[in-house]
């Protein structure tokens, strides 16, 4: 049963792939895929902390903690499961630094950020992140660095770590 699910996931994910590596669709998908990178979010949160008032500093600190807890959970699962990324050429940095695809750190990161924003406010940011997160996940499948099940597993990890962070704060 498990093997059939993995085979279906691989076949379905391949159907979502972008075949052409140039053009507006590819460049747009690449930009969206990178918008979920952890270094970019941590840099943005550091800037927000340094330049924001107490309201934003608190949220930046909690979101950075959420990203960190999520990263630890994702890496533990990746090295426990060891599912190889799909074959492909896009995302060499991901392929070199992190050869495992399950679960998606981008999907987990997006959902934990959305949950923290919904839980602590502002609500508009949480709703925006909740809409952005599945787009990033699907685009990463389209670019061939993840399978669809990686994205759903990332959502689950992000939801659980989001609940944990909100419970602690």
Description:
This protein has 169 residues and is mainly alpha-helical. It has a single domain (2-168), classed as Phosphatidic acid phosphatase type 2/haloperoxidase (Vanadium-containing Chloroperoxidase, domain 1), CATH 1.20.144.10. The protein is 77% helix and 0% strand. The chain contains 8 helices and no strands. It has helices at residues 2-15, 24-34, 38-51, 54-81, 92-97, 105-120, 123-142, 148-168. Helix 2 crosses helix 7 (123-142), helix 6 (105-120) packs antiparallel against helix 7 and helix 6 (105-120) packs parallel to helix 8. The radius of gyration is 16 Å and the shape is globular. The mean pLDDT is 92.
Distance between the termini: 40 Å
The secondary-structure element order is HHHHHHHH
How many helix segments? 8
DSSP E strands, number = 0
Residues in β-strands, percent? under 5%
CATH class reads Mainly Alpha
Looking at the structure, what is the overall shape? globular
Q: Give the domain tally.
A: 1
Give Rg in angstroms: 16 Å
Average pLDDT taken over every residue:
92
The major β-sheet equals:
none
Helix content: over 70%
The CATH homologous superfamily is termed: Phosphatidic acid phosphatase type 2/haloperoxidase
| CATH domain fold name | Vanadium-containing Chloroperoxidase, domain 1
